Amino acid sequence: MTSAAVLWVALMAAVVGLAAAWFVAPHPPELDGEAWFKGLLVARLADRPPADVMRWVVWHPLGRWPERKLAHPTVESMPGKLLPGEGELLERLARLPSIVARWAMLRDEAVAKTLTLPGDLPAEASPARWLGAASGWDRVRDDALPASAERRTSSSWLLIDDPRPGVPDVSAAFAGFAELRTLASLCADPVIGGAWEMARTRLAQVGQVTAAEWDTISAGMAPWGRVALASAVDALAKVMETKLPVDKPERRLIVAATGGAMPLVLRALAERVDLRDRVIAVVSVGGAVGGLLDQQGPLSAAVADDWMAHNFQHGLMDVEILRRIPYASIQWLDTSDPVPGAGGVPVARARFPEPEWDGRAFRCVEPVDLGVVPVEADLPVDDVVAALRLVVDLWVLSRR
Predict the structure, then answer these.
(1) How far apart are CA 38 and CA 56, in angstroms?
(2) Which terminus has fewer CB within 10 Å in the chain: N or C?
């Protein structure tokens, strides 16, 4: 065979391979996660006074990266190419003296867009598109709708909760449909307690210990030390195993986490590919994806940055079946905080980053930014969680 013929055969093989990959890999519709989530939330709140809806739900078409627009509204702070009209918005925000004033302007300008949701969303966003003609927008207030979605996906929810002051408590809202565990219960492990007591006994026998030795022991044993973190990750993996029995391979899991529990979820999935293969969505509810500013050691922001850079990658978080796994997040926003965020978790650290892509690995990690939710004393947490549950369920169905 001539060299030209060899090249021709190789070219045709490559074309066939690309075509096969195109048909095998899913091609989900392009949907705006924040608009979809907030459209569902507005539909849930249809009977509430518009003034209240506008305090709880803010949807601005140019509101991306709100923490940058609130804290540093400059063209240089925005990644990539500006959206049409975004530069003018940044200029007007920069003239205002504080985060509170800038948020008020964004909220006031968002009134018209927010109150016309979900009518402005594309047809692909309608629940009826994924759950059948009888499941339109008028059914969003019916809690049977997400239950129907979970039957279709053979999934169940697990929430790992880390209650933090200054943010809404979502545990009661999740209790109706999810199994709940707390970060504290995951750390109530005999290994941690036993190791800590051994260290205390040794110190008592020695009679004295240097500051450096004490720091080393504390870093390993005490929450949140290395031993504590490893033990908590192992405990979380065991909980997930009970939700994913071997004799029911069709069962799938949606794992949600708040606050400092989010790093544990990510580490457990990174370490256990067998569990990762059966998780169809990961949800951060104000979770510290990028670590906690008020912590040292394994849960600190510095450690989280390093871990995410080395582990939160398409090739390292891949799954057995070619499918995109949504990593969805909502971020709490208390405008009284000097750094936009709430509960010690800045908005920027409560959002999943987009992993770098080398052009070879299948893009299985799909960060889905559902936007900020203002921390208000009368926030209808049940409705927020219901809209979150439904948008995640629908997103999973749309990726099949």
Answers:
(1) 10
(2) N
Question: Within 10 Å of residue 156's Cβ, how many Cβ atoms?
Answer: 15
**Amino acid 105: pLDDT:** 93
Sign of the CA dihedral running 304, 309, 313, 315: negative
What is the residue whose two structure tokens read 């709490």?
332
Q: Which two tokens stand for residue 73?
A: 């509204």
| 67 Ramachandran zone, left/alpha/beta (phi>0; psi -120 to 50) | alpha
Q: Quick one: what percent of the chain has pLDDT higher than 90?
A: 56
3-class state of residue 133 by DSSP: coil
Closest CA to 284 of 188, 371, 216, 351: 351
In this prediction the pTM is 0.85
Give 46-92 as a DSSP string. Answer: TTS-HHHHHHH----TT-SSHHHHHH--SGGGS-SSPPTTHHHHHHH
CA–CA gap between residue 156 and residue 147 (Å, rounded): 9
**Mean pLDDT in residue range 223-229:** 64
Nearest residue to 42 via CA among 148, 144, 115: 115
pLDDT in tens, 278-324: 999 999 999 999 988 887 777 888 888 999 999 999 888 888 777 88
Calpha distance 16→10 (Å, rounded): 10
